[in-house]
Amino acid sequence: MTKRGRFITLEGGEGVGKSTNMQYVVAWLEAQGIEVVATREPGGTPRAEAMRQLLLDPAPDEWLHTDAELLLMFAARAQHLAEKILPALARGAWVVCDRFTDATYAYQGGGRGIPAERIEALEAFVQKGLTPDLTLLLDMPPSAAKQRLESRLRDQHTTRDRFEQEQTAFFQAVRDAYRARAAQSPERFALINADQSLAAVQSDIRDTLAGRATLWH
Ligand SMILES: Nc1ncnc2c1ncn2[C@@H]1O[C@H](COP(=O)(O)OP(=O)(O)O)[C@@H](O)[C@H]1O
Ligand SMILES: Cc1cn([C@H]2C[C@H](O)[C@@H](COP(=O)(O)OP(=O)(O)O)O2)c(=O)[nH]c1=O
User: Fold this and answer.
1) Is the distance from CB of 139 to CB of 178 less than 8 angstroms?
2) Which part of the chain is the Thymidylate kinase-like domain (predicted)?
């Protein structure tokens, strides 16, 4: 299948502002007259969202093997690609996705310690060469992001999912892995300083979207 639309992903640790800025990216692209499909991972389709439940369920007494976690992430991704992402790109829509495979390298790789080669093998199997055209990495120290997350948890009266229950060292490893990936592929990544006012973050995102020649040609 020939890919015609563009594929943009938002990445970063917990509470850095992905969901908030996702709406901004979608609105900005739509204002340019582009058809946008907004989605997220793990999830994005009913079956993949059912897998998300299994992945995020905090059930304290139930252990999930790290290999099972990794495979379930890619199982959800395979479903999401086949059912939603690839058909949208094929008809020319742009897909904006809240997290994708860089999250697997950051969380299952950096956080859980799974070797990158195993993730690469699954990526090749499931994605068959598809990678995002642009990845906005919202970057800030986990300690500052945690404060935002705590206020969100308070406001929305939600509980912590399996990942949100992890400790500081885990989130530091996730951030380090994300930054290392951005350094490896600077042509794909835009590193956005998320530790500034929302207006400043959105101004940086707008400049990135408008300025990436590879997106528009
Ligand atoms: N630049 C910012 N400055 C201050 N608060 C922010 C900023 N961006 C997002 N927030 C707030 O931080 C919380 C987490 O943002 P959210 O978009 O849900 O993050 P994520 O999806 O990355 O977990 C929300 O309450 C949001 O309103
Ligand atoms: C896509 C993906 C997500 N995840 C994790 C990261 C998040 O903790 C969780 C998804 O939760 P999400 O609600 O998207 O994150 P946030 O709390 O930042 O809004 O799944 C992985 O571990 N690997 C992956 O490949």
Assistant:
1) yes
2) 10-205
Strand spans (E) along 71-197:
94-98, 134-139, 189-193
Q: Which ligand is nearest to the CA of 196?
A: 1
Three-state DSSP state, 128: coil
Residues 6+ apart with CB under 8 A from 118: 70
Find the Cα–Cα–Cα–Cα dihedral 93, 98, 100, 102, rounded to 10°. Answer: 130
Q: For 107-131, what is the HEC assignment?
A: HHHHHCCCCHHHHHHHHHHHHCCCC
CA 15/CA 194 separation, integer angstroms: 10
Give, rounded to a whole angstrom, the gap between the first and last alpha carbons of the chain.
19
Q: What is the pLDDT of residue 206?
A: 98
Looking at residue 95, its pLDDT comes to 98
DSSP conformation class of 190: E
**DSSP 8-class letter at 99:** S
10 Å CB burial of residue 83 (0-12, 13-18, 19+) is: middle
Tokens of 215: 């997106």
**Residues 24, 61: Cα–Cα separation, whole Å:** 39
Q: Is there a contact between 95 and 26 (Cβ–Cβ < 8 Å)? A: no
CA of 99 from ligand 2 middle (Å) equals 7
Give the Å distance between the CA of 194 and the centre of ligand 2: 17
pLDDT of residue 2: 54
